Amino acid sequence: MISNIQPNISDAEWEIMRVAWTNQKVTSKQITAIVKEKMNWKQATIKTLIGRLVDKGMLQTEALGNKYLYSPLITEEESLKSKTNDFFDHVCNRKVGLTIANLISEATLSHADVQMLEELLKGKRNEAVDVVSCDCIPGQCDCQNHQH
């Protein structure tokens, strides 16, 4: 359940989680081998990051002989949704559309991605409002009704 996702993970921890999401069950040795291709981290650093993710409840451990298997306790989709919601909690409601437009303009998308977005926007048209209300406190954004 997404509302229970609270751990804030660092960019470095996110790299470890990507390996766990892709492989589902993985040893620290496997994580190290994969992450070393992208990052120039020592094995001790990677083990520290794994330990933090276990402490945060993002990874679970399973003893397998003299090694441990790590598996994600949350899906990548749930994590991305939580991170996205957290991001939009920090943006004025009136700027969400522009922010999404900026994200789309910067992204490399396939034809299938563009079609999916077009269909989503067609559905959103039925829910659209004339003006999005601002939910910021006075002085927190530049909406006309909040200017002093």
Concise synopsis of the structure shown:
With 148 residues, the chain is mainly alpha-helical. It is built from six helices and two strands. It has two domains: 2-72, Arc Repressor Mutant, subunit A (Orthogonal Bundle), CATH 1.10.10; 91-148, no CATH class.
Give a structural overview.
- The chain has 148 residues and is mainly alpha-helical.
- The chain has 2 domains: 2-72, Arc Repressor Mutant, subunit A, CATH 1.10.10; 91-148, no CATH class.
- It contains 6 helices and 2 strands; from the N terminus they run αααββααα.
- The relative contact order is 0.11.
- The mean pLDDT is 89.
Chart the SSEs and their pairings.
Elements: H1 11-23, H2 28-38, H3 43-55, E1 59-64, E2 67-72, H4 76-88, H5 96-106, H6 111-125
Antiparallel strand pairs: 1-2
Secondary structural class: mainly alpha
What's the CATH class of the largest domain, please?
Mainly Alpha
Portion in helices: 40-55%
Order of helices and strands: HHHEEHHH
The CATH superfamily of the largest domain is known as: Winged helix-like DNA-binding domain superfamily/Winged helix DNA-binding domain
Q: What fraction of the residues are assigned to beta strands by DSSP?
A: 5-15%
Radius of gyration (CA) equals 20 Å
For the largest beta-sheet, the strand count, sense and barrel status come to: 2 strands, antiparallel
Query: Do you know the CATH topology of the largest domain?
Result: Arc Repressor Mutant, subunit A
How large is the count of helical segments? 6
Mean pLDDT: 89
Number of strands: 2
Beginning-to-end CA distance, first to last residue: 41 Å
For the record, the count of structural domains works out to: 2
Q: In what order do the strands lie side by side in the largest sheet? A: 1-2
Q: Give the name of the CATH architecture of the largest domain.
A: Orthogonal Bundle
What are the low-pLDDT stretches, counting only 5+ consecutive residues below 50? none
Q: Rough shape?
A: elongated
